[in-house]
């Protein structure tokens, strides 16, 4: 391509498009049709330049021009309560459902690993001694000890806010750091599983496993599920870097990244519920069976939300990505 000839041939069209964009909404019907036609032609010109004769200055100018024209043609769309309702009734559950092949195995493996660590600690006094001194272990596991006092150490409202913040940060880190081939996600998962296994083993060795389960299950079922969903999504994002499939790596990462961002918002709401349970139900005077039943109901409601509502939305074509109108324009590629 002769760049000078190409610019000379189309310069007038680009200039005319700039003029029409400068007039804003003060366009006649004929001028609006002309703007759309010029936008389409300029987008094609940009694609030709990018593939045949890349010139940084000219490409930058046309990229900006095409972006302005697209914004004018499509119009700015404002978010509304309808968008939020659509997200929580279709987008979020569909995204969680679509990533089930990542987070369900993650949940099963982590639960198994936590149980193994707990058994190993409970069955080996020398391991317990390496964790802390005997008097420190007694202070943690005895009635009214550290494990029990933890859940009532602060006012319920502030404790709920603290728990929600910590868990939301952990989930967000899993989602964001997944792009680094998923390796940081594995470390975050291991830290959570290790903490669970240590508590399980120490309380079991003290003969108070029932008390520990009564404290951890009411909120832990939903909380850990949310963390596993975040971790599975992060691992999926990391695998997309390695194997984007039929999509280009850039397109695949953009689509999965947008879905992961939406997942972070949805999981923050889920963790808010688990934080309320941990602050108000776990330390309450309710019988153990009642507290566990509340946790099981919350977990069951979330799973039904994902595997019933989410599956239906996914089968209808919902992916959890933003709507097509809100995505960046995909320019045609010259052959």
Characterise the protein shown here.
This protein has 335 residues and is an all-alpha fold. The chain is built from 13 helices and no strands. The longest helix is centred in the C-terminal third of the chain and has 34 residues, at 209-242.
Salient structural properties:
elongated, mainly alpha, 335 residues
- Beta-strand residue percentage: under 5%
- Structural category: mainly alpha
N-C termini distance? 14 Å
Specify the oligomeric state.
Answer: single chain
Number of beta-strand segments: 0
Main beta sheet: strand number and arrangement?
Answer: none
Please tell me how large the radius of gyration is.
27 Å
**Range of helix content:** over 70%
Number of helices: 13
- Residue stretches low in confidence (pLDDT < 50, at least 5 long) are 324-335
The H-and-E topology, N to C, reads as HHHHHHHHHHHHH
Average pLDDT across residues?
83
Per the principal axes of the C-alpha atoms, what is the gross shape? elongated
Provide a quick synopsis of the model:
Helix content is 79%, strand content 0%.
SSE blueprint:
Layout: H1 3-22, H2 29-52, H3 56-74, H4 81-98, H5 100-123, H6 125-131, H7 134-141, H8 146-149, H9 156-177, H10 183-205, H11 209-242, H12 249-280, H13 288-315
